[in-house]
From TrEMBL:
Listed Pfam families: Metallophos (PF00149)
Descriptive protein name: Serine/threonine protein phosphatase
Taxonomic source organism: Neisseria elongata subsp. glycolytica ATCC 29315
PANTHER family (UniProt xref): METALLOPHOSPHOESTERASE, ZINC-DEPENDENT ENDOPOLYPHOSPHATASE
SUPFAM superfamilies documented for this protein: Metallo-dependent phosphatases (SSF56300)
Domain of life: Bacteria
Higher taxonomy: Bacteria, Pseudomonadati, Pseudomonadota, Betaproteobacteria, Neisseriales
One of the record's GO molecular function terms: phosphatase activity
Calcineurin-like phosphoesterase domain boundaries: 14-100
GO cellular component: cytoplasm
């Protein structure tokens, strides 16, 4: 059976869960608040939908993924792939993936302790992840991890019949050729050779890396799968530290150009339910400051990621961060009501 990047949701009430990031205990609390059994069955026929990034950074990514796999096989849960799942499938060790990639263990020590996946389970894990879609939709709703981008979706339509990993690698090869033949590419290689290790130090910014910023800009826009799961970017006004390194590009508010009638629910872009001076920045003012509002040109896009992936900060630095700053939420559909892991509820606006 060929890979289907777009799949369709059942016509039942849904609970759309934000990025879990391996915070399995928080997810279990949310599950009970929503009225589900431990295995994911809901007595009123509701179904769970995950917006991606079930793994990385948190203490138990293996348990979260194993739970989803069982619920998915029973027809009780769906997901779209996020950029963190794509990194696993692309064999690309990134920040927070020490539970899967041994080479990340030392760099990811600040996230520890975490449960590691068994080596013998990695092949099967990758196989079923590679079957998961990038888009979910039905007549009244669209779900994608980061960005609903018609031009990039058209590229996936042309690749029908090709496996997800084959598509990803082909797009990567085409992008690699384009980048490596660019006039500024030698400058990029120089910056990576001399400054890349410094770029992972949160306390000291590296020297200016304009070619690296150009590289990241092109990389975000020219790879269709990466664009849908990570969003497209623009050059930042000044370097900033996020996701384990200093960056010269920042994300774009694609929703300001989205004018379709059908609502879109996304994750990826961290929101803060209870902002404070020490809270993780809400995507550098990319999203509205009010955490309960829909956004975009038609006010029909909603980000349901409330930063549970930063919970490690409260565990490591309790004097600076409060646990309640980092929340896990589900958006009940069609009710448009948020439910949090602590039982708090709020209507969206």
């Amino acid at each position: 059976m060929s890979y289907s990047y777009r799949q369709f949701l059942p016509d039942t009430p849904l609970d759309i869960v934000g990025d879990v990031h391996g915070e399995f205990a928080a997810f279990q609390s949310l599950l009970h608040r929503l009225g589900y059994r431990d295995d994911g069955f809901h007595p009123r026929g509701r179904r769970l939908v995950f917006v991606g990034d079930l793994c990385d950074r948190g203490p138990d990514s293996p348990a979260m993924l194993a739970w989803f796999k069982q619920a998915y096989e029973r027809g009780w849960a769906w997901m779209v792939l996020g950029n963190h799942e794509l990194n696993i499938l692309a064999d690309d060790p990134k920040d927070g993936s020490g539970w899967f990639f041994d080479v990340r263990a030392e760099k990811d020590a600040h996230y520890a302790p975490w449960h590691c996946v068994e080596e013998k389970e990695k092949t099967e894990l990758c196989a079923w992840l590679a079957e998961q879609p990038l888009l979910l939709e039905r007549e009244d709703l669209r779900i994608v991890h980061a960005a609903w981008l018609p031009p990039q979706i058209e590229c996936l339509e042309e690749a029908k019949g090709e496996s997800l990993t084959a598509q990803y690698r082909r797009f990567d090869a085409e992008l690699k050729h384009r980048l490596q033949t660019a006039s500024w590419y030698p400058d990029y290689l120089y910056e990576q050779a001399h400054y890349a290790p410094q770029a992972e130090n949160p306390d000291h910014a590296p020297p200016p890396m304009p070619a690296t910023a150009r590289y990241e800009l092109e990389r975000s826009r020219l790879h269709p799968i990466r664009a849908l799961t990570s969003g497209v970017e623009r050059l930042a006004d000044k370097p900033f530290y996020a996701g384990g390194r200093w960056r010269g590009t920042t994300r774009c508010a694609w929703w300001d150009d989205y004018r379709d009638d059908k609502p879109v629910v996304i994750g990826h872009y961290w929101r803060s339910w209870q902002p404070s001076p020490a809270a993780v920045a809400a995507e550098r003012l990319l999203l509205p400051p009010q955490p309960d509002v829909w956004h975009g040109a038609r006010r029909n896009v909603f980000c349901v990621d409330f930063s549970i992936g930063a919970s490690w900060r409260a565990r490591k630095f309790p004097q600076k961060y409060r646990p309640e700053q980092f929340r896990l939420a589900a958006l009940r559909w069609p009710e448009k009501v948020l439910v949090f892991e602590n039982g708090e509820c709020a209507a969206t606006r």
